[in-house]
Design a protein that fits this description.
Elements: E1 2-5, E2 13-16, E3 26-36, H1 38-44, E4 60-68, E5 81-84, H2 94-97, E6 121-125, E7 129-131, H3 137-155, E8 163-167, H4 171-182, E9 186-191, H5 194-202, E10 207-210, H6 216-223, E11 229-234, H7 239-248, E12 249-257, H8 270-274, E13 278-281, H9 289-297, E14 307-312, H10 316-325, E15 332-336
Parallel strand pairs: 8-9, 8-11, 9-10, 11-12, 12-13, 14-15
Antiparallel strand pairs: 1-2, 3-4, 3-6, 3-15, 4-5, 5-7
This protein binds zinc ion (2 copies).
One zinc ion (ZN) is lined by residues 89-90, 92-93, 95-96, 104-106.
């Protein structure tokens, strides 16, 4: 069978790989849709520090179970439509011992530290598949990126009494926004792009701030009776947005970082102490796939609006090329693996 393949940065090839075999605890999945995310773009650009080459990408995956090993539980059936959890856990490190498998020190995400699933068939441990009888393959491929934002809202303990600022209204930001909206919070979105802010509004954000035209901090003060937000979630990864989150948070507020900055960030650390902030990192997603599947199944929020463009399997090289050339023009690109 064929696979989408990065021999080195900035090169995409389609190569021939062996058909996968599946073990007693594994299911064999007919892969339908692979979503591309910021990580994939950075891998393509050779800018993602955790990746090694050559590599088969693909970690936002949906498909159908077509075979199962003899130790796979009853509830997983041939024909189930599933999404894949792309993470692994060692079971031994401090994070795993604390039950926080999402930040396992030795996590290997599909398509990053090990080969991903941009192949027509893929074998995976049964504990890594989550099914829905009503979601489309497109929607199932959105579950993982939405879960990353959802986990960040959980890290920030977002509830209906909170005012939440989400900095960055890309896919991950929209995941945090939809979780915060679903939990009943008042949500403010800040971004540099009017189209992304319009999308955020469709997801239930009450206020939007375009930081190229508006003073974000001053607007937040206005919107919050001069207090600041109780939760600030950063989903960009720049030094200035890292600082903005701390500045925008109220006294006794919470700050959650999902963005990965490549530069050093300098802070006035007095705010950490003076405000007694909870400053939290948020990585991957922990036990939220069923919640996110349920959220998308309710079809209250317009998740399909995240999809900017789709490409056939043979067009994967073109997809990365186009996205690299105009990163702000796309929210979510899908690759039709069988197409
Ligand atoms: Zn991703
Ligand atoms: Zn571990």
């Amino acid at each position: 069978m064929k696979a989408i393949f990065f021999p080195e940065p900035k090169h995409v090839e389609i190569i021939e790989v062996p058909e996968p075999t599946y073990g007693a605890d594994e299911v064999l999945v007919d892969v339908q849709i692979a979503g591309l995310c910021g990580t994939d773009l950075n891998v393509y650009r050779g800018l993602f520090p955790l990746v090694t080459f050559p590599r088969i990408p693909g970690h936002e995956i949906s498909g159908t179970v077509i075979a199962k090993g003899q130790r796979v539980p009853e509830h997983i059936k041939i024909g189930d439509r599933v999404m894949l959890s792309p993470y692994s856990e060692c079971g031994q490190c401090p994070a795993c011992r604390a039950g926080r498998f999402n930040c396992c020190e030795f996590n290997q995400t599909l398509g990053v530290q090990r080969d991903g699933a941009m192949t027509p068939r893929f074998a995976i441990h049964h504990s890594k598949v989550f099914s829905s009888s009503t979601l489309t393959f497109d929607e199932l491929a959105l579950v993982e990126p939405m879960s990353v934002g959802y986990h960040a809202a959980n890290r920030g303990r977002v509830s209906e009494t909170d005012t939440v600022l989400v900095i960055g209204a890309g896919t991950i930001g929209i995941g945090a926004i939809s979780a915060a909206v679903r939990k009943g919070a008042t949500v403010i979105a800040a971004d540099i792009d009017d189209q992304k802010l319009a999308l955020a509004r469709r997801f239930g954000v009450q206020h939007t701030i375009n930081s190229t035209r508006q003073d974000v901090l001053a607007t937040i003060k206005e919107l919050t009776n001069n207090e600041g937000v109780s939760v600030a979630i950063e989903a960009v990864g720049l030094p200035e947005t890292f600082r903005l989150a701390v500045e925008a948070a109220c006294f006794a507020g919470r700050v959650v970082y999902i963005g990965y900055t490549k530069k050093e960030v300098s802070y006035n650390t007095q705010d950490f102490v003076r405000k007694e902030l909870d400053i939290l990192g948020s990585r991957n997603a922990l036990r939220v796939f069923p919640s996110v599947i349920k959220m998308i199944e309710q079809r209250i929020l317009p998740f399909n609006d995240l999809i900017s463009r789709r490409y056939p399997f043979a067009g994967a090289g073109e997809a990365f090329h186009d996205w690299d050339a105009a990163p702000n023009e796309f929210t979510k690109i899908l690759i039709d693996i069988q197409g």
